[in-house]
Amino acid sequence: MGAMTPVGGTLPETWAGLLAGRSGVAALEDEWAATLPVRIAGRVTADPADHLSMREFRRMDRCGQLALIAAREAWAQAGTPGADPERLAVVIGSGYGGLGTTLAQARVLDNAGARRVSPHTLTQIMVNGPAAWVSIDVGARGGARTPVSACASGAEAIVQAAEMIRSGAADVVIAGGVDACVNELTISGFAQIRALSTADGDPAKVSRPFDRDRNGFVIGEGAGILVLEREDFAVARRAEILGRIAGGAITSDAHDIVAADPAMQERVMQKALDQASLTGADVGFVHAHATSTPLGDRLEAGAIAALLGDQVPVTSTKSMTGHMLGGAGALGAIVAVQALRTGRLPGTLNLENPDPEIGLNVIGAAIDCSAAGAGMTNAFGFGGHSVSLVITGG
């Protein structure tokens, strides 16, 4: 596994930050942010330029940069599996792709004319760019796919990757999600629909899933990448198995372009449990989608309680990273794997006044979860995209 997040530039740094309850949300000091209605965000802690060659850095949008760096970390941790290139694939989801480049080059076009537009523009703005760059980097010829399902993109990529392996289409799949949308257009757009928090004060205290005083999410950026393998392939090469994707489900609400359908959230979780041949009683914890919006957190809480009961430990690391959009679901899967491996589940930062309407066992600090045999992680996106994963230990 590999990660670039607002609390760490690598997976070990990210995990240490999450367990410690360290926020990656800070004020935006950029000139372009001065007039925005919201001026806080979660940016990755590492500079991509420090991890890439100058040629790579110049050819890629920030979205592709974060994905490639996290993928290289995951690939190295996996021991660079010697898979047949024809049976090695990549599935990396993104909600917005190279939106940062789109904005920057539109300004160049307006201010300096067509001849000043970068020749790399089109390959930088492609939403499939991160998957393509990673496939080139490892020589994967079994397919390079890009689910585009808003904030569910990273989790959907993992489900698709697992399906490729189960169907026999691939032996190894590099999967995950990424977004790099800390820019004036995304922040303004989310602010206009009142999705972002407008709270004043310490930026680190603004993202507060399940808390009574939450009033919107904080935008973040980052990438989470996992290397999935067919089990007998991993065993044959004596790989360290970190965890298992026991079940994964994708549904569409067919309800509203923005508002979620709680009945479908419960349904996607049940479908994931069914595929894993488990029941709600087998789930030791839930990493919730919970972004810190008043309605969204309450709807998901109701679905969790209806299916799993109100005593299962629930957490949301978006309280520390902000909402990484297409990267969020992949990081959720990584958190679940890490929790099962280490026996520690990160808490929900800023849970100072638990919302009485939530009615769940939301944890405010890291707890022991060594008795958990399975964890569930959810990801929901605009358009009615719902994804749930059930993960078991290695």
UniProtKB/TrEMBL annotation:
SUPFAM superfamilies per the UniProt record, alphabetical: Thiolase-like (SSF53901)
CDD domains cross-referenced by the UniProt entry: KAS_I_II (cd00834)
Keywords (A to Z) from UniProt: Transferase
Native source organism of the sequence: Arthrobacter oryzae
One of the record's GO cellular component terms: cytosol
The UniProt record lists the keyword Transferase: yes
PANTHER family tied to this protein: 3-OXOACYL-[ACYL-CARRIER-PROTEIN] SYNTHASE, MITOCHONDRIAL, POLYKETIDE SYNTHASE-RELATED
Family in the record: Belongs to the thiolase-like superfamily. Beta-ketoacyl-ACP synthases family.
InterPro entries, alphabetized: Beta-ketoacyl_synthase, Ketoacyl_synth_AS, Ketoacyl_synth_C, Ketoacyl_synth_N, PKS_Beta-ketoAc_synthase_dom, Thiolase-like
Pfam families hit by this protein: ketoacyl-synt, Ketoacyl-synt_C
GO biological process terms held by the UniProt record: fatty acid biosynthetic process
MF-aspect GO terms: 3-oxoacyl-[acyl-carrier-protein] synthase activity
All residue ranges annotated as the Ketosynthase family 3 (KS3) domain in the record: 1-393
KW Ribosomal protein (keyword) present: no
Name by which UniProt lists this protein: Beta-ketoacyl-[acyl-carrier-protein] synthase family protein
